[in-house]
Write a structure and sequence with these properties.
It is built from 13 helices and twelve strands. The protein is globular. About 45% of the residues are buried.
Length: about 375
């Protein structure tokens, strides 16, 4: 069980009193092994004024580990995270497109085992990089088609494959509430002088209940119910809905319209990866897997075997994910310092990796960002 000192991130939100933090490092596969060290370096380079001391624990998971051991997510990794770590960083995982007996995604399993029910993915424009956009996609992280309950059978001599799509009221309530709280938090930052394309908060619920009236219908009605049940708190937030296909269209045509977007697991996955195109590259888009008791920062790119070992993988997504981890642990000031250093690097656009049109190495980008701290 979680130790008393770090039993709740909610407690950390309010106190942020811990000074010595133990961070689990799970590189995973491919370029994950190249970018996770970037997050570690940035944490170690934080100015002493924040009074944070870090210890790091190297942990195993991934497809490469599965090929060696037959296990993608060893129980030891889960137990060390639960018993010894205050937060964690996860690099990338290879996902074979064809079925491999005994293998399933370790990050999907880790989200369930650690109770990380929300995947929070900001997509924010930096002047000169991509299109004007400032939104957060909040993705339900534990169910939908990602429960991986599938079967194949024969009917009339032909194979038929089925997958269960599960939407629960409980999970929908939790993701609706955290999305609304994020909308309030973003508005507070704006009122304190933070830059934004928006002047007021809004939340957009994405669904396909015109076709999936039972499953997506439950998601839509439940999130709406969370909003309507506490208008004293959430009434300042504009409530909107968008059918997923039209959401994709509008997101690319009018991205500046969206503030906080909340969606079931599959839609959220597709939308957040697609939204990365608005700001230049998956290499700059961060995410955090958030629960009531733990948070794991995770860059949104994959293992990128085509550039593995070349030293040119973009560390920005990992560094931003590191800042997100700190932010959701309650350490907003050092997180803001990291965000500002990354933004300055991108805005200057001199020391960037090839995916952004530059010729710098991974380590050169890390060093440039650290200088800006």
């Amino acid at each position: 069980m979680f130790s008393a000192a770090r039993s709740s991130i909610r407690r950390a939100y309010s106190t942020a009193s811990a000074k010595k933090l133990t961070i689990g490092l799970i590189p995973g596969d491919g370029i994950g092994r190249e970018v996770i060290p970037a997050g570690k370096q940035v944490l170690q380079a934080l100015p002493s004024q924040f009074g944070l001391n870090f210890e790091f624990v190297d942990l195993n998971a991934g497809f490469d580990y599965f090929k060696k051991t037959g296990t993608a997510l060893p129980e030891e990794t889960v137990q060390i995270l639960k018993q010894s770590c205050d937060g964690a960083l996860f690099g990338a995982v290879s996902s074979p497109t064809t079925k491999v007996a005994g293998y399933s995604s370790p990050i999907v399993a880790l989200r369930k085992k650690m109770g990380l029910y929300a995947n929070v993915r900001p997509v924010k424009w930096v002047e000169g990089v991509g299109r004007p956009v400032d939104m957060v996609i909040v993705r339900e992280n534990t169910e939908d088609l990602y429960i991986k309950e599938e079967r194949i059978f024969e009917k009339d001599g032909q194979k038929v494959a089925e997958a269960i799509k599960r939407i629960s009221e409980n999970a929908s309530k939790k993701i609706g509430k955290i999305a609304l709280e994020i909308a309030l938090k973003r508005q507070k930052v704006r009122e304190l002088g933070g830059s934004s394309l928006h002047t007021s908060p809004s939340i957009t619920v994405v669904h396909k209940s015109n076709v999936l009236s039972v499953s997506d219908g439950l998601f839509r009605e439940t999130v709406k119910g969370v909003y309507q049940s506490d208008l004293a708190r959430y009434g300042s937030i504009e409530y909107k809905e968008q059918i997923v296909d039209s959401m994709v269209y509008k997101m690319f045509r009018q991205p500046e319209e969206f503030d906080v977007v909340v969606a079931p697991n599959l839609y959220g996955d597709i939308l957040s990866d697609g939204a990365a195109a608005l700001v230049g590259s998956l290499g700059v888009v961060s995410s955090a897997n958030v629960g009531d008791d733990f948070v794991i920062g995770e860059p949104t790119h994959g293992s990128a075997p085509d550039i593995e070992g070349k030293g040119i993988s973009n560390p920005v997504a990992t560094i931003r994910s590191t800042a997100m981890m700190l932010e959701f642990m309650g350490y907003q000031e050092p997180a803001a310092k990291i965000y500002a250093a990354v933004d300055a690097n991108l805005k200057e656009n001199k020391v960037v990796t090839p995916d952004l049109g530059g010729n710098s190495t991974t380590q050169e980008v890390v060093e440039d960002i650290i200088k800006r701290l």
